[in-house]
Each structure stands twice: as C-alpha cells, then as structure tokens.
Predict the structure of Aspartate aminotransferase family protein.
Amino acid sequence: MTDTLREPAQAGAEEPTAQAGPRVSVTPPGALAAGAGDGLASVRPGEALAAAVRDVLDGLAAGAARRGGPVPAETPEALAARVARTLAETRGEEALGRLTELLAYGAADPADPACAAHLHCPPLAVAVAADLAVSALNPSLDSWDQAPAATELETLLLRELAGLAGYPGTAAGVLTSGGTESNVMGLMLARDRVLERVTGEPVQLRGLSGRVRPRIFASAAAHFSVRRAAALLGLGEDAVVAVPVDRELRMDPAALDRALREAARRGEPPVAVVATAGTTDTGAIDPLPACAALAAEHGAWLHVDAAYGGGALLSDRLAPLLAGVELADSISLDWHKLGWQPAAAGVFLVRREETYASLARRAAYLNPADDEEAGYPSLLGRSLRTTRRADAFKIAVTLRTLGRDGLGRLVDACHDLARAGAAAVRAHSRLELHTEPVLTAFLFRYLPRDPGRADEVNAALRRRLLREGLAVVGRTELPADHASGTGGGRVRLKLTLLNPHTTAVEVERLVRLVASAGEAEEAGLS
Ligand SMILES: *Cc1c(COP(=O)(O)O)cnc(C)c1O
C-alpha cells in the first residue's frame, strides 16, 4: 500500500480506532459526471452502497410497476429495441437506477403467480441481502487467505447438508453453479474411479484408453446435462444408455438391470448409474434403492441428480420420496430451485471424501503443502473452478433464519399449489392432466376440437400468453412411447409452482387463463 493512495486524514472524521483505508476510485478522476465523485464507483462498498442500494430498490419498484404482469407484453424484437435504446441513451450516475428499471421491466418475474414455467424461484429477501454482503466483501474460496471465515462456513454448511441427505461424517462436497456442474463433477469422479479400477491407469493423467467403451446409464427423462457431461469427459454422448421410463417418467429398474447385463456381456465397463430424483418436467423420482442395488452389483458409481427433488429433504411430508439417496456415491442439489436462493446455489456432495482424490491439485500460489500442515485449510481441490463466490453464505443465513421446518413449510405450500392446479386441470373439460404432481410441477395440455391440431395449438397458446404479457407457462414434449391419450401428440404444457405465496385461487385462475388462450388460438383470433 503506497501512501499516495491514501487520502489526507480528516481531523475528527474517523473514530480513533478505525483503520482509515484507501478510498480509491475505480475510474480516473473526472471520468464520472460532476457530482458523482468517487461515490457510486468506490471500491469501498460500505461508503457508497447505501445510496446505490436505494437506487436499485427504486428501479426494481418502478420497473415492476411499468411491467404490471409476469412478463412484459412485448415481442422479442420490440424488447430488444428498447434494451438497445436504453443502453445507448444512459450515461453517468443514473445508469444504475435506469438500467435496474429496464431489467425489472423486462423480467420474467418468478414472484408473479402467473410466472410458473421453469424451476425458477422467487428468491427470499434474506438470501438476496446475504448475497449482497458476499458481493460487497468478495471472498474467493480458492484459498484461505482470500476467504478465512467463508472457507469454514462453507465446510460447516456442507456438513449440515450432507447430514440432511443422510450421509455419514465421511462426506464432502462443494458449492457449484448448479446441477449442470454438479453432474459433470459426479460423472468425472465416477469416470476416474471406475476406469482406474478397470484399466489400472489413472484417467486424469493418461486420458482415456481407446480399448474400453465405458457406459453411463440414465433414464430417458434424465437432464440433458448428463449427456453433455459425457461429451465433456471424453466418453462421448453415445456412452449414455437411455433407460426406458414408465408413464410418470420414472426409470424402469427391470430395464436398467437388462441394460447393465447387456453392457457387461459386451465388456463395456459401467462407469455410472445416474438416478434422477425429481425430473425437470414431472418431478418423477427414479427408484433409488433399486438403482443403488444394481449399481453396486455391477461396480458402477451411483450419482443421484436431485437438483430439483433435493428440496423434498426439507419437508417431513416429501422426504420419504428420497429414501435411498444416502446410498449414492454423489448427489447434485440445487438451492436455487426448491430452496429460494438467488442463482447460483448448486451443491455437490460425495459420500466418501477420498473419492475426491482425482480432483485434488496443488498450486504453489494458492495451497502450498506447508500452509496446509500449519493449519490453513484449502478448498481448491473440491471444485472445478478456481475463483469461486461464497454461495454457501446465503444458504447458511437462510437455514439459520427459517430453519429446515420453515423451508419445509414453503416446500409443502408449493406441493399443495401443484395439487390444486392439477385438480383444476382435471375439472376442466378442455384440459387433460398427464399425471398427478409428485413434487411441485405437473404436465397437461389443452384439447382442441380437432385432436390433430393438439401440438400446434398448445405450442401457440403458450406464445400467445407470453406475447400478451399474461403468463409464463412451460412447454415440453413427452417421449414418443408415453404420448398416448386423446388423439396423440407429444407437446405438453407445464406448471412449475415455486412461489409459496401464490394462492390456490391464483393457480386455478392461471389454469383457466391457459384454457381461454387455447380457445382463442383455436378460433384463430389474432
Ligand atoms: C435444473 C436441473 C439441472 C440443471 O441444473 P442447473 O442448476 O440449471 O445447472 C440438472 N438436473 C435436473 C434434474 C434439473 O432439474
């Protein structure tokens, strides 16, 4: 620290014990409009943050009021032009307020009861505020000397989350950007462990041998990130065997058994079984104990993708659905889904810390061995990332504020809303429910008078609701062999209820709104 960076001390302005640190503007003097000073751009957030946060809160309120619904009633072209215009026009200290208003106006707002398409939750105020503290302090979890308390806090939080999943004290884990990264990690550790056992060579050092054809077994309804992880890991997407599912989109354990035996017969090592606990579309939970038994029998790693369904662990009512998750070698959990955290709040857990071995790295500038021996812990070897935000903090604050019980009540409220929505669909003559909700989501569709137009009308009615700014409803397609029902067709609409403050009446209104949009679409109204 050079003295030229220090402002002259102002007599009496500081408490005698306060450390008068440097107030360094991140922009050269004169670069900001007169009057801005080094306020908004100060690198000491404490000084300017309160005023900036007021601008943000005002911008959020103004933008939401201008939007007046779950999504702006504009075409993508009109919205793109508005964004470009506002960016071009905005300069200086009004940028934060104006662009926040633009962002809020142009948001698909998960806090609106009619925004119910995706696993996209309205974050808790306490979690957003905790995340602000993290942004202000900017700890980085790749070395203790960038994050002393945050390092310990993440370690303790992971122990708590491992306990919630039923893991023993040998568990370890890390915060991730989400299920996608967690799935890559689970499959990477599986690849390294299983293939080293099969080939005697450490894959992380030598790479893959062309002689082996490793296989990953995941249900046909597993998340697409499983295939992409296989591609990334050098196994190729074709290494993923799609195991058939039942009508509720749960993996068929008899089919898994057959697929594993078939691979064994061909000499293809089974690297991993991926069981999904809460599929993205229907919340279906694969039979975890059966998957665990079959994985163990064939020497495969069991990875449970509980990115969505992991939230059930918070609820006494729904936790039994996840019985067997504790048998997994690794688990993906997403607290930015059923956990009401701002993204990112992914969690990756392994049952046994030693299975992390292939990811461990020694970087002289981050975690020298003598520092670790002297008691300075390092989380570097836990993550694929180097610089890493303290995403554990907001989860720790949330768990302390609401407790598991408080969060469980939010999960149950969303489960109740999904059941109310499904009942409203069943009661409507022009709507067809696919299956009862397992967690907080369900699939359904509008039945046009001409069944041959079902896919086209359902796809179009969803865009109509978006265009009119009335609702954000999900859309997906069923696997071909489960698209039975009146007149065939694979397109289904989806409601994912993640806002515990929504009421059953609001969900019923949303269901009727979908039916009206279907009627308008069928009638060819523009
Ligand atoms: C959401 C989801 C993912 C992907 O998680 P991200 O947090 O979006 O990366 C993976 N698997 C399942 C089952 C999911 O629902």
